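Section 3.1: Structural characterization of target chains.
Under the original work plan, the team committed to producing a structural model for every single-chain target entering the pipeline before any wet-lab resources were allocated. The record below documents one such target. The sequence was received from the expression subgroup and is listed exactly as submitted; it comprises 269 residues.
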Amino acid sequence: TLRDMVKKGCELIICHASGYQTVAPEIARETGVRVTTVENHRDITPGLISDIDTQPQGGCYMAGWLAGKMTRSNIVGIVASAEPPTWNRMSAGFAQGLKAANPNCRLLYSVIGEAAYADAARRKHNTQDQIGVGADVIFGMGDGASFGMLQACALKKAKDGGKAWFIDVIGDKRSIDRAGVLLSSVIMDLSVVYEEVIQSHMDGTFGKQHWVGMNNGAIYLLDLNKAVPNSVKKGLNAIEQKLIAGKIKVVDIPTAVELHKYLKNLFPR
C-alpha cells in the first residue's frame, strides 16, 4: 500500500496505525518520501520521519473525576480492548481523577487481550460482568469493541435499577445512543495534529514529535449528558483550567506493568 502511494506521487504519508511502525520508516528511507508514524519515537528523523503520540491523561483525569461524581454505587469500571501506551495512559489518568473526586470509590479493571480492538461481543460481556458486580459507570477503550460496551450499558441496568453510564474515548457516539447512557467521551481531535504535521512539511521543519494533548486543543471532553448536574459541570470547568495551567499534575504511565502497579496502589482491594 505504501509503495503504491509513493508511485502515485505522494510527498507525505501519514500512517495512523501502530502496525506501520516498522514498514513506514523502511519505505521512507528507501524512497525518500516523508512518513508520519504513531507511538514510534525511536525512528524520528529530521526531514524524513515524524511521529504522533498521545498525551490524553488530562482529559481522562476529567473523565475519572466525572465518573467519581456520577457513580451512585461507588463502583466504577474500566474496560479495555488491549494495553497499548495510549490506553495505559488513559486508564492511569482516569484512575487518578476518580480517586481525587471520590476517595471511597472502588475501581474495577478488565482487559480482553493483546489486540481485541474489534471484539464487540466479548467487550459487551466484560462490561455486563462489571455492571453485574455493582459498577454503574464504565470507562471504555476499544475502537470497534466500544460499540459492545455501549450496548451493554444500554441493555443492562445498574444494581439500583438506574442507568449504567458509559464514558467513551476518541469519537462521538451520541447519534446511536438510543438509551441516553453516554455520559461523555474523551475526544481526540486528530485534525489539530495533522495540521501541525502538514504545516511542518510545508515550512521545512518536518521530522519531529507531535502530541495529541490538551495544550494544543486536541484532547477534550465531549458535551456532557444532560443528566450531569450544573455543580459537576462547573467543577469540571475549573479542573480543566487547572490542568491546562499545569496546576494539576497527571501521571504519565505508558506501560502495562507500571499501570497495574499504579492501580493496585491507588485502589487497594
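The CA atoms of residues 31 and 105 lie 54 Å apart.
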